[in-house]
Amino acid sequence: xxxxxxxxxxxxxxxxxxxxxxxxxxxxxxxxxxxxxxxxxxxxxxxxxxxxxxxxxxxxxxxxxxxxxxxxxxxxxxxxxxxxxxxxxxxxxxxxxxxxxxxxxxxxxxxxxxxxxxxxxxxxxxxxxxxxxxxxxxxxxxxxxxxxxxxxxxxxxxxxxxxxxxxxxxxxxxxxxxxxxxxxxxxxxxxxxxxxxxxxxxxxxxxxxxxxxxxxxxxxxxxxxxxxxxxxxxxxxxxxxxxxxxxxxxxxxxxxxxxxxxxxxxxxxxxxxxxxxxxxxxxxxxxxxxxxxxxxxxxxxxx
Length: 303
Description:
alpha/beta; Arginase, Chain A
């Protein structure tokens, strides 16, 4: 019954590059599972409905790293550990999102949500935690799932503090957009708060070292990428008007540092509104970030 909640794409040509089109019944332990949320953050008449996930897939084809592209076939080879389930049925159906996320984790997969809003990311994270607790009732402190929120406003990260089974987390954002109540909650929970733009300054210790100290090295990490953290001058297709936000290279440097831990437990890329950005820069930046999380890097690049 749960498998019918997700619409599958008919061919890999319309899915994420390198991912096999599949259904929930085909999820096996150890695989990364992409699926789209058909409703996205709303901004007046422009609402990303059904558009964000498809735009991310299309942009990923344009940004496919060299090592995953077979130019003789013009198609990236399919990875056995990467599946694309397509999109949930149109409409803001939280029950469907919750059920699909839980089933992916129950089957041993890592859910990666394409599109949606921050509350969708929290729903996916909460479901992953609940399903993970059922599979492993008493995880150790070092193996419990942690989270990383990269967002301009960290009130949503503060809400995640109360999720059952979460072993802690890290909030990277623009601190002047954090309410005092959220700030107090994050600090009380021991979550490090970090200005994302400071992560790439030369006089700071390597971000990979700091992340290892804050997040540990054993447990999985659920990553929430809020595209509205990007300066609106670089990403017109992001929800909100974040003047003075991150520049693309700063954003990718932070994402790559998180990805370098190699313990992805799940992810969500949210607040992407392709209708606002006719040039497609926003979804291509999101696609680059997703490729880093999935371990896809081009040949000849020093990482």
